[in-house]
# Entry
Amino acid sequence: MTALYTALPPYARALDMTFVDEIDGVPVIGMPFADRVQGRPGFLHGGAISGLLEIAAIAAIHQALRAKGSDSNIKQVNVTVDFMRGGLNQMTYAVGEVTRLGRTMANVEARAWQEDRDNPIAMGYMHYLIKAKRAG
# Structure
């Protein structure tokens, strides 16, 4: 894991999310199953899955911006989450993929899975406004 991936926001830490791997230089976020992320008995809560997707998307967009030499701020504009199947009582992973990185907008797709990356439990589609930091 590179030194760039050292800190997660408090929400992610509250759900025990961690950086567990990289795929093509983009961090993979892991979230263990626990009472705090359980919805109906034995299954992940949809909000926890959505939060994991959001954290993965944010990590991906920050990585893409850094690769361009940018330290711009981002602001979430829109989120759509598609739930494919219930998340079970096991480790869950997510990774984001920046599908478009323009000057002022970025589109990110995030995928959450458990045992098989090719069999996602949910997909997230997010749009971000990119705002350059003010000088001075």
About this structure: The two ends are 33 Å apart (CA to CA). DSSP finds two helices and six strands in the chain. The chain has one domain: 10-131. The first helix runs from residue 10 to 14.
